[in-house]
Amino acid sequence: MTTEATTEAITGAVRVLNRPPRHIPRRVVLIVVLLFFAVVFAMPLLWMISASLKPENEVLQSPPTFLPSEFQWGNYSQAGHGLLPFFLNSCKLAALNVGFLLLFASLAGYGFARLNFAFKNLAFALLLSTAMIPGIVYLVPQYMLFRQMGWIDTHYPLWVPNVLTPVFGTFLLRQAFRGVPIELEEAAKLDGASIFGTFWRIMLPQVKPALAAVGALTFMGSWNDLFGPLIFLNSTRLQTMPIALALFKGEYFTQTNLMMAAATLTILPPLLLFLLAQKYFVQGITMSGLKG
Amino acid sequence: MANAVLPTVSPPAVDGPSATRKRPKVKPKRQNLAGWLFVGPVIFGVLFFQLAPVAASLVVSLTNWTGLNSPKFLGLGNYKELFTADDTFWPSLKNTVIFTLVVVVLTIFIGLGLAVLCNQKIKGIGIFRTLYYSPAVTNVVAIGFVWFWLYNPDNGLFNSTLKTLGIHGPAWLSDTKTALIAVMIVALWQGVGYPMVILLAGLQSIDQSLIEAATMDGASAWRRFWSVVFPLLTPSLFFLTITQFITSFQVFGIIYVMTSGGPNNATSVFIFQIYEAAFGHGRLGYASAMGWVLFVIVGVVTAIQWRTEKRWVHYDN
Q1: In terms of residue numbers, what domain contains B109?
Q2: What is the ipTM for the molecules in this complex?
Q3: Where exactly are the transmembrane stretches of this chain (chain A) (predicted)?
């Protein structure tokens, strides 16, 4: 901790200690408001989790009960068993998407932030302009293209085009690289580091929060993608979690409690990721200069 | 996040860093090569996977191609059919416009309120942030499951609760009068997380000394928010009006899983029509024409948004 931060922490603590009692009700009001919105936003998902633990006959009971009379954890092993292959597909795609997108977006972000080359402005304008094109416009020709390439009913269309067109990621990382002090780079150059070495060893570690933010957004996009698997995949064994869930509805489960357990399993990974990464996530977006 | 648009925080000009000028050792040719090696993969990707297909799509939109036949040139025939003979076009466009207006305005407004709440220094605030953001990370199929059930006219949570109050609840998704509203409620629930996080990042990057100075001057919390904090958030708000518009205008997933456009096209949106035309009826030419109409609408509205930027967006530097 720097001295500045320490002083700030101490003055902050003193301020809290000296705070007149009238501030306490404000805090209570704040917590009540926070809890109210927590209930509004979490209620449907809590409802889903509660149903996922109920015995079958209790789920559609009227009037509904919030807590299960007994917790049937077995619902999860039953639902989870069928989901496993789709879970692995989703994990594979998420890993490929996040890994390669971060690589290409940070390379391009660094190039646009710190290197000089011919037609740089034109290339950057070209990149940003594509953000405005609705995905559906290129979907039909893309479909035909992938058919030519033999990519239909493979996983390639679900990650290769994504990782090579990271418009938002490139923009966010470019902003983050621009915020790194130029002296760091100069020092590396004087030590004889190559352009790539400077980028990889010196610059990348400086923008970790931005990488975390882009990585988390990419993970969620990949995990929750509906359009891609719907259009490019036919075989059930290649499907991802959300589509498997839809398939389960018709084929495997007539039981609402099992369906809700399966649904809960599909949302758990992105939820845990956000819980763990939310601090870096917000920090990463702040760092990008997308700010006030 | 397929379609996010450039936030306009720093001046858009891509001025080369002055640092490269101080490095005379690296020859310009080598720099060119290095630069293009860094940005090459992404530029290739954008050309090959986006711009070339978009151009191809314009050509396809002038034909009756199904992907299997040998296409015949129709001129503007597809466009003419869309505007004059397709009786789902105008209703679905109207639904899309209503959906977009409501969702863009309310997600940003509620997102701003939640961002202010989440910016309070309270123990466990990270848990509240996660709870508020949890709908945003939930896949639409799971959302469809749980909301479909909440909306169940007989034993869903909403109507059961209304019944205990003695109110006979609506049929929600299966009534043409309430279906679009029901879908918009779900979209709002899921949609506020993203603006909340962007605005929270905006709030956290505000220089605290500015707020302290205003406090010293005796400004109330309300006054401080509107005259100090809000103007500093306008770049983030501008970014959100653009990105939220583009994503809302392309809404598909929620509609697909909840209503499939029904009942009686009451929730049919533009993208859903395109999806049906292309992958339901195999009319690739017609679907491409619809795609281009969508593209032009999005382009025009985005351009208008950019033009109003100077009037209300405040840049620090």
Answers
A1: 76-311
A2: 0.82
A3: 28-49, 93-112, 124-144, 156-173, 210-232, 252-277
